[in-house]
Design goal:
This protein has 93 residues and is of the alpha+beta class. Helices cover 35% and strands 13% of the residues.
């Protein structure tokens, strides 16, 4: 039996996924996925792996949140103030 974090890592090794996809596949809340991701990112280098993060992006103006350190999606765009934000994507390489 594998832990939740191991299941998340396995899914991310198969390809890029958003927290929503991970939560539906594993059967946990999206909020819980976001709480596991920082721990996973910290532990992967010991295994010789790295978590790759595709930054969140504003759908309205195209602004990318490249410098954002938090893994959760932002509430709104700082440029156009739109709340239509594409969630960040995660993968393991």
């Amino acid at each position: 039996m594998t832990t939740i974090r191991q299941q998340i890592i396995e899914m991310l090794q198969q390809g890029e996924a958003e927290a929503k996809d991970l939560s539906q596949e594993i059967g946990i809340s999206e909020k819980e996925v976001y709480s596991h991701l920082p721990h996973i990112a910290k532990s992967l280098p010991r295994q010789g792996k790295k978590m790759k993060i595709k930054p969140a992006r504003c759908i309205a103006c195209g602004y990318e949140f490249k410098s954002r350190e938090r893994l959760t999606p932002p509430g709104r765009c700082p440029l156009c103030k739109s709340e239509r934000i594409e969630n960040p994507g995660f993968s393991v390489k």
